[in-house]
Amino acid sequence: MTPSERLDATFAALAHPARRAILARLATGEASVNELAEPFDMSQPAISKHLKVLGRAGLISTDIDGQRRPRRLEPKRLEEAVDWIERHREIWEQNYQRLDALLEELKGKPAKSERTK
Amino acid sequence: MPKPAEVTLPSDREVRVTRTFNASRQMVWDAHTQPELVPKWQGYGGWDMPVCDMDIRVGGKYRWQWKSREDGKQFGFFGTFTEVNAPSKITHEQYYDPGDLDFAMPVGDPCIVSLELGEHNGVTTLVCNMAFASKEARDAAVATGMTDGMEYSYTRLDDLFARKAA
After folding, report:
1. Where are the domains of chain B?
2. What's the pLDDT at A4?
């Protein structure tokens, strides 16, 4: 996968609340499909579909051996995505901290313009 | 101090930033829409914002340009306002202008940026949603503005804060 395809897969994987919940569950330890299906009001095929998306994005992995085939989190790939989000967040946060300072400054002054069209 | 900005991914083409401010909605709106205020906070360490033209009305254009204090290189964003509802919502189509930065990226696909402001008990909540027009546009944004280029400029952020405090 190219970095672009990887990012695409990760974005898509993280965009769904059920998949984020599955990742959160797996962050506490590996789990079988049945165990993952339990807390969600979801059929096993539906869960399997989400697991496939997560697997394709490299966010989870599984062993072939045995019936249970527990899924586990692949933290490295998730870290990449979280890194990206965090870097983005920092850029905004730096801007917003400057905006905080500006707003404090503006509060000290009489309102310059009541209206902006 | 307000809670730090939160970033979420509502879909595979969207990035959403949420932040609260201890100020009225009108004030936060002004800081986003008045050309003399925007350059005071919107930008990157080590970069000045010599160009900030904004025609705040539906169909109105804007152009933002940053210039490196170190080597004079420039880049910017430009676009058109598609929705203006003071002081609660403004939406624009944003294009990236790579200027003379080394990392060029396609300029064909706009990013739809919407800013929504809500006020409660004197605290304003800002939700900024960026919807990339295509996967390519998202990847390009990730590859440039949101990563290396800005990382580079952040090394001099402290300098900027020091200058502001002086």
Report:
1. 6-165
2. 66
Domain extent for A21: 3-107
User: What is the CATH code for B6-165?
Assistant: 3.30.530.20
CB contact at 8 A, B53 and B63? yes
Region of residue A67 (phi > 0: left; psi between -120 and 50: alpha; otherwise: beta): alpha
Read off the pLDDT band of B157 (50, 70, 90): very low
As a whole number of angstroms, the distance between CA B87 and CA B164 comes to 27
The total domain count for chain A is 1
Question: pTM for the complete prediction?
Answer: 0.70
CA of B104 vs chain A CAs: smallest distance (Å): 16
Residue A115 inside a domain? The answer is: no
Instruction: Tell me, yes or no, whether A117 lies in a domain.
Output: no
Substitution target from B6, B26, B30 for chain A, most A beta carbons within 10 A: B30
Question: What Å distances lie between residue B83 and B18, B52, B90, CA to CA?
Answer: 20, 19, 5
Q: Which residues of chain A have pLDDT under 70?
A: 1, 3-4, 65-66, 80-82, 84, 110-117
The reply to whether residue A102 touches residue B22, judged by beta carbons under 8 angstroms, is no
Residue B85 has pLDDT above 80, yes or no: yes
**Quick one: pLDDT band at residue B4, thresholds 50, 70, 90?**
confident
